[in-house]
């Protein structure tokens, strides 16, 4: 409704009608998303004031400006909202430039992100790109192993009734087990037998990305209609030929849908896998080091770094999906 | 020698399973037999190859640790599952469904929130654990907070998608009946959304346990499943670690089963719930 006057003129111009409809589609998609994001950022800025009020008033007191409860001891048990309400000027003015705020403002996080990605050399230990690269290696290795195993298991389940009956319930049940909880154990145990570095983290990533792919592929490999399967049978096609020519192509949309879940899960696995090794390198290590030393801005920038990496990975899979499905004529 | 014995046992049990799968009761007997096979092989491998307890304890050792430490494990269960995960799950799901009911009233908000929510649901939200532990302290409140944040977006996205899953024809029918907006919500939209909501709730149960346990790695009182796992790993007391994992797995499967049973009761009309063939 709101975007009609913007695009209506170009839509009526005959030859540019297509451009107009594309533009209109884009506005219909982008404007609501941008509004929501803007609202979230505004909410975040507002939340900074009460969250950081304690520290703001402490700084104001040190700068010898009168605040109401005058001493820190009296302020300790007062909530952030009432502190901000009784000293609005100081709380607002000092909420956004603190060294170690309880809740950093968005621009502080963005500045830290910019500083640690663009300003630092990629090989520097203070560069977030360096840490993201460390985390990315086990993510991708684990994702590759996990998806390959998941596809193989799905093929087995679809072709063998025994495997379907006996393995599938356990595959579903294993999803209800909080597997991330044993991640530290895997790391420590493998470390004690002398396996270190990439492999233990990749195992956790592989385990996490394994089940979405299995479940999705079982669904996908069973997606061909009975009439398609009958047609293959009238051609006297072998099981392998049916798999290659009919089942695998039909399962592709399901495969890509589960690959997107799997790669995000693999990243979470790699990040958690870094926690127990004592916070040396990687995005998880940045999170842990930040929480040890109270460097909130560092935690938030690592968190957003991880979010950006996750978004890029999912977008890459989505891009490959679009290319493949288009070539196969399956695009919607 | 022992390798041949293990392979023989495996082949025999698998053969039995193949026989079972053909029968009518194979639907439940087959997975049970498969699980027993795995446990038996695990025990045999550990015993015959003298695998150190530090690497992989035998199922019998885990069972012993489980039965000897019932009070400790129960205290951990209460702290992590009942206080942390359950309260966080309840708050998170209630907030998400409430927000979804508000959002679904406006098409503009729905179109804006779905992509953002989908994006947030794919993020490594566990990473907020150190921040929330810093804000809410080491007690169970911070674990509940992590669970709320983790559970919120999957449930929100599913509920919003579900609330719009009805056809114009159905809405027109409600209008011809003269239904008020509340009645339309109660009898059409919420009913149609239930399969989606349950899907979100199922995802949320697993996430809630993960969130509560992982948050304890960043700081906890001296009780809790995450605390137990990380300290006992440090002492290389692996049977106890596995006993904690068994408790976590049981809690996860049971809560998932409860939700699934409730789903079966409330959405019996949905194609996915009807008996096959």
Please describe what this structure looks like.
The complex is a heterodimer of chains A (332) and B (277). Chain A has 332 residues and is mostly helical. Chain A has 15 helices and no strands. Chain A has helices spanning 4-11, 17-51, 53-62, 72-75, 80-86, 88-93, 106-119, 128-159, 161-175, 183-192, 198-221, 226-234, 239-274, 283-292, 296-327. In chain A, helix 7 (106-119) packs across helix 15 (296-327). The radius of gyration of chain A is 27 Å and the shape is elongated. The two termini of chain A are 26 Å apart. In chain B, helix 4 (70-103) packs antiparallel against helix 9 (181-216) and helix 10 runs antiparallel to helix 11 (238-266). Chain B is mostly helical. Chain B starts with a helix and ends in an 11-residue tail after the last helix.
Offer a concise description of the structure.
The complex is a heterodimer of chains A (332) and B (277). Chain A is built from 15 helices and no strands. By secondary structure, chain A is an all-alpha fold.
Which keywords apply here?
heterodimer, A: 332 residues, mainly alpha, 15 helices, elongated, B: 277 residues, 79% helix
Q: How much strand content do the residues of chain B show?
A: under 5%
Tally of strands of chain B: 0
Helical content of chain B stands at: over 70%
Q: How far do the termini of chain A sit from each other?
A: 26 Å
Largest sheet of chain B: none
CA radius of gyration of chain B: 23 Å
What overall form of chain B do the CA principal axes indicate?
A: flat
Protein topology:
The complex is a heterodimer of chains A (332) and B (277).
Chain A: H1 4-11, H2 17-51, H3 53-62, H4 72-75, H5 80-86, H6 88-93, H7 106-119, H8 128-159, H9 161-175, H10 183-192, H11 198-221, H12 226-234, H13 239-274, H14 283-292, H15 296-327
Helix pairs in contact in A: 1-2, 7-15, 8-9, 8-11, 8-13, 8-14, 11-13, 13-15, 14-15
Chain B: H1 2-22, H2 26-48, H3 59-68, H4 70-103, H5 107-122, H6 129-136, H7 140-163, H8 168-176, H9 181-216, H10 225-234, H11 238-266
């Amino acid at each position: 409704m709101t975007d009609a006057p913007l695009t209506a003129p170009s839509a009526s111009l005959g030859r540019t009608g297509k451009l107009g409809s594309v533009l209109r589609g884009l506005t219909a998609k982008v404007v609501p998303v941008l509004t929501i994001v803007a609202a979230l950022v505004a909410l975040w800025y507002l939340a900074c004031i009460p969250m950081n009020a304690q520290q703001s008033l402490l700084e104001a007191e040190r700068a010898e400006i009168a605040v109401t409860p005058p001493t820190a001891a009296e302020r300790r048990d007062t909530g952030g909202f009432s502190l901000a309400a009784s000293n609005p000027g100081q709380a607002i003015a000092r909420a956004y430039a603190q060294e170690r705020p309880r809740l950093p403002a968005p621009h502080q996080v963005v500045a830290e992100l910019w500083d640690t990605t663009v300003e630092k050399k990629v090989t520097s230990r203070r560069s977030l790109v360096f840490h993201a690269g460390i985390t990315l290696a086990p993510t991708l290795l684990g994702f590759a192993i996990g998806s390959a195993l998941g596809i193989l298991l799905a093929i087995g389940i679809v072709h063998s009734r025994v495997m379907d009956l006996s393995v599938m319930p356990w595959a579903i049940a294993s999803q209800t087990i909080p597997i991330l909880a044993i991640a530290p154990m895997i790391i420590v145990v493998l470390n004690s037998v002398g396996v270190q570095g990439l492999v233990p983290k990749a195992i956790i990533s592989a385990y996490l990305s394994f089940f979405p792919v299995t479940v999705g592929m079982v669904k996908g490999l069973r997606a061909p209609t009975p009439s398609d399967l009958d047609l293959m049978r009238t051609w006297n096609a072998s099981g392998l030929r049916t798999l290659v020519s009919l089942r695998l192509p039909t399962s592709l949309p399901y495969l890509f849908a589960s690959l997107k879940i799997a790669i995000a899960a693999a990243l979470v696995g790699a990040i958690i896998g870094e926690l127990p090794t004592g916070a040396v390198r990687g995005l998880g290590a940045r999170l842990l080091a930040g929480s040890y030393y109270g460097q909130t801005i560092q935690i938030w920038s690592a968190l957003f770094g991880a979010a950006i990496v996750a978004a890029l990975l999912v977008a890459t899979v989505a891009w490959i999906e679009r290319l493949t499905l288009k070539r196969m004529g399956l695009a919607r | 020698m022992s390798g041949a014995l293990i392979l023989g046992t495996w082949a025999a049990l698998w053969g039995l399973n193949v026989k079972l799968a053909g029968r009518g009761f194979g639907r439940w007997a087959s997975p049970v037999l498969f699980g027993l096979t795995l446990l038996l092989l695990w025990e045999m491998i550990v015993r015959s190859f003298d695998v150190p307890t530090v690497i992989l304890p035998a199922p019998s050792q885990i069972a012993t640790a489980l039965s000897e430490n019932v009070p400790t494990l129960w205290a951990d269960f209460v702290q992590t599952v009942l206080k942390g995960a359950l309260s966080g799950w309840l708050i998170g799901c209630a907030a998400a469904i409430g927000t979804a009911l508000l959002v679904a009233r406006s098409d503009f908000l729905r179109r804006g929130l779905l992509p953002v929510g989908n994006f947030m649901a794919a993020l490594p939200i566990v990473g907020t654990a150190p921040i929330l532990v810093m804000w809410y302290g080491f007690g169970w409140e911070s674990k509940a907070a992590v669970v709320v944040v983790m559970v919120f977006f999957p449930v929100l996205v599913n509920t919003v998608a579900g609330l719009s899953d009805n056809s114009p024809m159905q809405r027109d029918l409600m209008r011809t009946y003269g239904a008020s907006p509340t009645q339309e919500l109660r009898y059409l939209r919420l009913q149609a959304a239930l399969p989606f909501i349950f899907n979100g709730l199922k995802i949320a149960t697993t996430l809630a346990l993960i969130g509560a346990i992982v948050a304890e790695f960043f700081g906890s009182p001296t009780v809790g499943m995450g605390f137990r796992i990380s300290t006992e790993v440090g002492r290389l007391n692996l049977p106890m670690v596995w006993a904690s994992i068994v408790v976590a797995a049981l809690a996860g499967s049971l809560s998932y089963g409860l939700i699934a049973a409730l789903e079966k009761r409330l959405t019996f009309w949905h194609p996915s719930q009807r008996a096959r063939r």
